[in-house]
Design brief:
alpha/beta, Rossmann fold, five-stranded parallel β-sheet, four-stranded parallel β-sheet, 13 helices, 14% strand, binds phosphoric acid mono(formamide)ester, N-succinylornithine carbamoyltransferase, EC 2.1.3.11, arginine biosynthesis
């Protein structure tokens, strides 16, 4: 594996989950692998978990870590070829990616969707710009359309919390005051399609995700019905895909409550808005896996970096 750009870069999900669970038991066993290697983590958007867990993962492997809040502190980048750069952008991705590659052996990129230009978002201009012009491997730390490190983490957390064959997993939309991207939901769905699960998505009408991603997946518009007898309820807000980036519904009836949860385990990638997405009683219960999910971010990232470092040798 050279780059880790999407969930499709995982060649065998069961093997990767098992390897990550082994790393979790002995996180410091491969310290020599990253010696004299540097990872650069470039953030075009905010982060808590991705920033610290990827840094921790790299440190567990003996790497040096450089972090830059590129969105606030870097030069504004131009991505198009042949542009007369007399407007806002000060530097072209061609130079920036090559320069960063001289300082780093691996580059992590976080660059969210704009949610105002679907074509540009789906072209993944930032991630693909670095992929095209960097001379070192690239890790996707959440891009416009995917968050594969989160989805891999979620696969680890699911495996740790069930021994059931074909568990029922529900991906439920929940309300949020702001327009949020589709990346977490997209990668979660793709990860579900790589597993033996009884999978259903529930959301209000108008919140259908990219049909190329949801193809063949059951959608149930009645949230209570969808959640019946679930083993896991994974909750996430996303903005409309067809009415790109719009907030069409803020109905509090879609919030996840203890009654809807039943005996299921609650999952969310965090950050989460209490009593908007999910009520306190759920988050504060033993049925919530959110803290363990955040913990597993380290071991998901660590396995990805380990495979990249092995490939560099
Ligand atoms: N789940 C997740 O990616 O968290 P951050 O946005 O805080 O990194």
């Amino acid at each position: 594996m050279k780059h880790f750009l999407s969930i499709n870069d995982i060649d065998s999900l069961p093997n990767w989950v098992n390897e990550a669970r082994s790393l979790k038991k002995n996180p410091h066993n491969h310290k020599a692998l990253g010696a004299e290697k540097t990872i650069g983590l470039l953030f075009f958007n905010n982060s808590l978990r991705t920033r610290l867990s990827t840094q921790k993962a790299a440190m567990n492997l003996g790497m040096e870590v450089m972090v830059m809040n590129f969105g606030n502190e870097g030069w504004a980048l131009e991505y198009a070829d042949g542009t007369i750069m007399d407007q806002g952008a000060s530097e072209h991705i061609k130079e920036a990616a090559q320069v960063v590659s001289q300082y780093c052996d691996i580059i992590g990129i976080r660059a969210f969707a704009s949610l105002n230009d679907k074509a540009k978002d789906e072209a993944e201009v930032v991630l693909n710009g670095f992929k095209k012009y960097a001379t070192v491997p690239i890790v996707n730390m959440e891009s416009s359309v995917g968050h594969p490190l989160q989805a891999f983490t979620d696969a680890i957390t699911l495996a740790e919390n069930t021994s059931k064959v074909n568990p029922k997993v529900v991906l439920s939309w929940a309300p949020h005051p702001k327009a949020l991207p589709h990346a977490v939901a997209n990668s979660f769905i793709q990860m579900m399609q790589m597993q033996e699960v009884d999978f259903v998505i529930t959301h209000p009408k108008g919140y259908e995700l990219d049909p190329n991603i949801t193809k063949g997946v059951r959608v149930e518009y009645n949230q209570r019905k969808a959640c019946e007898n679930a083993d896991f309820i994974y909750v996430k807000n996303w903005s409309s895909y067809s009415n790109y980036g719009m907030v069409l519904n803020q109905d509090p009836q879609w919030m996840i409550t203890k009654a809807k949860l039943g005996n299921a385990k609650f999952m969310h990638c965090l950050p989460v808005r209490r009593n908007v997405i999910v009520e306190d009683e759920v988050l504060d219960s033993d049925q919530s896996l959110v803290i363990e999910q955040a913990n597993n971010r380290t071991f998901a990232a660590q396995l990805v970096l380990k495979k990249m470092l092995e490939n560099l040798k």
